[in-house]
Amino acid sequence: MSAEGLERRTRNYLSDNVPQIQDHGGHFQIEDVDEATGEVTVSIGGACSGCGIAPMTMRAIEQRLPDEVDEVTSVKVRRASGPRAAVMPNKTDEMEDMEEYSDYSPPF
């Protein structure tokens, strides 16, 4: 499969299975796709940058995408940078390492 095809399948999975990102004023962008290794990098931004469950959404994407898109072997999800990074101040950095959220499983 080509990187373009892998990117399209990744985008389709996120659009179809994680609609909360866009429904709540956030956005995602496929930053990089390595066809040879199956590694995918996704960034989320907009309202996601200040959302309390963003760390759990990021973790869920990292865990579920490889199970759903066969060619994906690993996923890195990060917050967007630049002009599309946030519509509110980022308040969730410290939450990413909190044990309370390590087992959270969003309903998507």
UniProtKB/TrEMBL annotation:
Q: Which domain of life is it from?
A: Archaea
Compositionally skewed regions (Basic and acidic residues) per UniProt: 1-10
NIF system FeS cluster assembly NifU C-terminal domain residues are: 19-75
InterPro entries, per database record = FSCA_dom_sf (IPR034904), NIF_FeS_clus_asmbl_NifU_C (IPR001075)
Q: Cite the residue spans of the region called Disordered.
A: 1-24, 77-108
Q: Pfam family of this protein, just one?
A: NifU
Protein name, UniProt field: NifU family protein
